[in-house]
Amino acid sequence: MTIYKAAVIGGGPAGLAAALAASKGGKVLLIEREARLGGILKQCVHDGFGVIRFGEKLSGCEYAQRFIDEVRSNKEIDIRLLTYVIGIKKNKTFHITATSSSGIETYEAENLILANGCRERTARQVNIHGTRPAGVMTAGVAQNFVNLLGVLPGKRCVILGSGDIGLIMARRLTLEGAEVLGVYEAKNTPSGLTRNISQCLNDFNIPLHLSATVKRVFGNKRVEAVEICKVTEKMEYIRGTEEILPCDTLIVSVGLIPENELAESLSVEIDPRTRGPVVDQNMQTMQDGVYSVGNALHVHDLVDYVSETAETAGKALLQPAAPRELVKVDAKGFLYLVPQRLDLASIKDSTVFYFRTAVPRKAATLTVRANGQTIYARNYTNLKPPEMEKISIPLKPRTGEKLEFILSDKEV
Amino acid sequence: MPDIRKIKRKLKKAGFGSIEVSEKLGGVWLRGELDEYEQILECGRLAVDKKTSRGVINDIRLKGYIPAPMRIPSLRDNLYEGRTPDVLVVGGGIVGCAIARELSRYDINVMLAEKEYDIATGQSARNDGMIHAGIDLKPDSIKVKYNMRGNKLYDTLSKELDVPVRKVGQYVLLTKKWHKLLYPVVVLRARKNNIPIRYVCQKELDRKIPKIGYRHGAMFFAGAGIVSPYLMCIALAENAVQNGAEICLNTAVTGIEHKDGRILSVATNRGTIYPKVVVNAAGVFSDVIAEQAGDRHFTIHPRKGVEAILDKKASRITDSVIGRFAMKSSTGKQHTKGGGIVRTIDGNILIGPSAVETPEREDESTTCESLDEVLVKQQGLTGELTRSDIITYFAGTRAATYEEEFIVEKSPVIQNLVQAAGIQSPGITAAPAIAEDIAKFCTEILSETKKIEKKKDFNPIRKGIPCVRELPIEERAALIKKNPDYGVIVCRCEEISKGEILDAIRSPIPATTLDAIKRRVRAGMGRCQGGFCSPVITRMIAEETGVGLLHVTKKGEGSELLTSYTKEVANDNL
Fold first, then answer.
1. Domain B468-551, CATH number (from 1.10.10.1100, 3.40.30.10, 2.30.260.10, 1.20.1090.10)
2. pTM surpassing 0.80?
3. Peptide bond preceding B85: is omega within 30 degrees of 0, i.e. cis?
């Protein structure tokens, strides 16, 4: 039996990029549960993908296809489609058991790259009550219906949540002839990228209502109306602001949750802030040989960075495996900071960090301290939680050193 | 006969002098109008007299309130016009389905009319799936009689119908120190109905339940168990169908014609049926059917319960059932154990239910407040319960009578009417036993005019859809070899294969809606709540049934998932 250099679980953008990078070091197995590679990009017919990576605006499908073509022609990569991993055991190597129409098979690999992506939070998980009729769905489901099945999920739609998929769907549904009555966001700032607010809502005169949420759904068989309610900054309903809005569809775009059920089955440590694994700069989790990449690691806004984290992991496998020497990175003022650990044994001249600010900051300073001494500082303007930042920092931490990353408002 | 004057006095004393009280069908009939729903309930409770009255017929109107009419399918055809079954069962909940199966043992024609798009859509699917030990029931009640028999029958049913049942036992936590003093009393009560009981010390409890909220030990009832209530209901109905019974979905009873103490015909939206015997198993509408049939001697006052399902990751909380010890309140208002925590047969944690009186029989909506109440209350049992683990929540309405008792009877007023009404908790447990008696009543009535014999070829065995996730690897592999569809996973959260979903669509009572498939194989019941699989299953239903995507529904006619093809809309607007 082949012992693969790496088994990549998930054939979306992260898995594709990881498989390609890892294939330079040996045989790679790529497992995908759907019938086609590409993950959620298959249903992303809008453009804006690949600006950073390819310097051009591609649709999600086109972006994915570039990788798929490469993967398909790469002899080192074995692809298993419509194959679902039911269990992974680690002895010296990883034994991956998967089910498909050809039966139950077990594969062996030296390393494991988890590229499981994420799932959407549902209406029930954001405390929407009332009845349970047809016509309530996540933005991703609506996108699947419209773009893959060619059907409209409704004619008069209300969108809850200003996450990017929600914004994209507001435009998409409008273009397909549905009426989007409004986008409602419980927070007082939009959750999606600024460019999407402009291109998907403003350009189509779709109103965005901040500090307002959907409280209840009406209708027994199909959605007949929703109840809108204003909320305070602490997300408490403001009494007397309830308003009934007749519609036939409620689409929720209220956040993504990294899928880490497989990681958890391997006792991988999870960061409660990212809801993905704790990793070092090579995207290796706290379990040796298990890597986490893409949206399973943390939810990205741009696919270009998804591919990048995946390549980082894939490339790391090319280096000879050495025992790790891990240092914790303390982070203050961030929504999250990835990586959360540094492996001193494999550290390079500079290290890439991905982060989101905890709160919107007009002017901010990112300070890195080693044992209380500032060793790096950089100023930022206009940091927002919905927009992930990437930074490369030259670091040479020493064993036992206390490493702190602090993001603070810039003192004027 | 009830003492009308005594009840009148009681009502007057309580400030309800305006209420007209009279005798009707051996029960107490209340008429009038009041401002508050709670007042109407209060009158109903005051009029209870179990010794001399057949029940309370509470027709007091709520001022300014018109109850929503029963939801009836818009479908109108004559599919069942002129049919003359031996027995027509009204209601496709677990009671009706269990009755249909019992009746299918005999050489008779059995029809079951269910107004919804599928069986098990009401309270039978909206409960905690607990098989009750019976300790909280009055030792000499009708409820406890059927509960104890039903509890035993579940072991056989599980084997015959291929539906998993686990007798996991129930911890009833003592919430006060002095509760311990009552233990001998509870033991006596338990003995009366042969209910096994054991005292569990706090030390053992601490090992069993994390962050437990009480420190006074518990009683353990090994007889309590868990089952998927809707799967059991479906299995009973499927086995009935296998044995010749006919399940008529989307078929609502709209009127019953009776004359000289006999039902002549039953009108439905799909034609008039002429049954020899009618069984009323209409759940929350059982008093409506009783009225139509000419023997309404009771009243259903719906009691709504909200329940929440937690992620399987929360299953560490318990592997059985946890409740709290409660003294029955003296006012008789307290008609719930206050809910609890159940690890369902599928491995999720379920919390609830609550108990709220509502005049709306089909109000299955929830509110933030009702869910909060359930969560906060059950957090009292263990601090391990967290809001973020909740993946979904739902509500159902239980068919409570003022007597808080089951009605299982051959009507003394209408010769060919048999009633299984007012069946609420522990209805799931009791249903198989109730069904045995109801079937007996039916055959007794039928025997008056013809000889009723048992079917020689009755087959009690029903094979369920294989659950590939639960199978040992070798068996799973063998199954995939036979049918490769069992290898392809469609619902990734619950690991449900394409083969299982196709089985559901092709099952004896075909599941052709998203919700019907969900109840049979769990596809869409996991943490993503159908986020990934619902478009795939929608397509599978369309392909398998040949109806076209736009006709696929979530839960029957009117709940279509999609409104048009995309390009169609674009062209319309040009």
1. 1.10.10.1100
2. yes
3. no
